Amino acid sequence: MLIALILVSPIFIFLSCDDGSDRKGPQLSPSKIVAVGDSLTAGVQSNGLVQDFQENSFPFLISQQIGKGNEFEQPLIDSPGLSTNPSFGTAPLTFEDGEIVVNNPDVDPNSLLLNFSLPGPYNNLGIPGGELFDLGNTTSSDTNLFFDFILRGLGTQLDQTIALDPSLILLWIGNNDVLGAVTSGGNLNNITPEDDFNFEYTSLLDVLIDNTSADIVIGNIPDVTEVPFSTFSKRIFRTVPLLGIDSPVPVLFDGNFNPIDFGVDLFIPMLTEEPDVVHLLFPAIFAYLFGIGIPDQEALVDMGFSMTEADMLVSEMLMGGG
């Protein structure tokens, strides 16, 4: 029968074919581990993947802890690594002299694949950007090269997991089924419908249980509203007593995400009653240069500024955006 053990956050559920009646808790001594999932499984950090990150992925760390590190094969990527979002460079971001640096090395991605010729599937099959549906249905992608680099024409993640005949499966999938709603600025259409998700997940577990004898450790989906992409915005909230605003509101900020003070505690709220407003995500900060997100002079006059002051503030905000 199946038993479940809920551990600490993030929650993992342990499924086993043993009823555990003769022991205090699940005691794992697997002969072969396979991990399936997305960027969290792959080991992505700083918007990219490289060998150093992969060797700190949670599946690899677990395999080391149970003495299987030398047998745990990964799709290792040589330095400088590959970006998971080309909008922010072709390699992982770095932090240099207090600044986040976008890197665009002129390197053929194929030349960085250190373990591409491995004759069988990798033990770590986590694919950055992958969703639940992809796990049992996608073998290649024109927009996400990681599918081709990791799956290599050997079938889906599900196919390859079964082919490896593991004794332990680490399953953490579904994060991207909801994360897109956050990264797109709150577009709920980017969330996989709950009924579809439940059907796909149940079907996935049925296939794994029917076709392997593995114990399965399942990771739940973290609260995506608590990821830094969302919580980082708190630093741009300020009160603006000079404008009669006593509760923190988002204010204009510079390229380093620091609120722009146009006087003594004079911050410009990013609030407006104007129609057809464009809402920006942090990566679009430089749209300030084109006046997007900056109130026009008439709006500032309505706040109580003179037209001369309004003209000056708009000019300073444009420069602040750069």
Total beta strand runs: 10
Quaternary status = single chain
Separate helix tally: 11
CATH class of the largest domain: Alpha Beta
Cα-atom radius of gyration:
24 Å
Mean pLDDT metric: 82
What percent strand? 5-15%
User: Could you give the order of the helices and strands?
Assistant: EEHEHHEEEHHHEHHEHEEHH
CATH architectural group of the largest domain: 3-Layer(aba) Sandwich
Shape: elongated
By secondary-structure content and strand pairing, the structural class works out as alpha/beta
For the biggest sheet, the summary is: 4 strands, mixed
End-to-end Cα distance, whole Å, is: 62 Å
Task: Describe the protein's architecture and organization.
By secondary structure, this protein is α/β, with parallel strands linked by helices. The protein has two domains: about 10-220, Rossmann fold; about 230-320, no CATH class. It is about 25% helix and about 10% strand. The protein has helices at about 40, 50-55, 60-65, 130-135, 145-150, 155-165, 175-185, 195-210, 230, 295-300, 305-320; strands spanning about 10-15, 35, 50, 80-85, 95, 100, 170, 215-220, 235-240, 245-250. The strands form four sheets. A four-stranded mixed beta sheet has the order 1-8-7-2. Strands 3-4 form a two-stranded antiparallel sheet. It has a two-stranded antiparallel sheet with strand order 5-6. Strand 9 and strand 10 (about 245-250) form a beta hairpin. Residues about 1-10 and about 280-290 have low confidence and may be disordered.
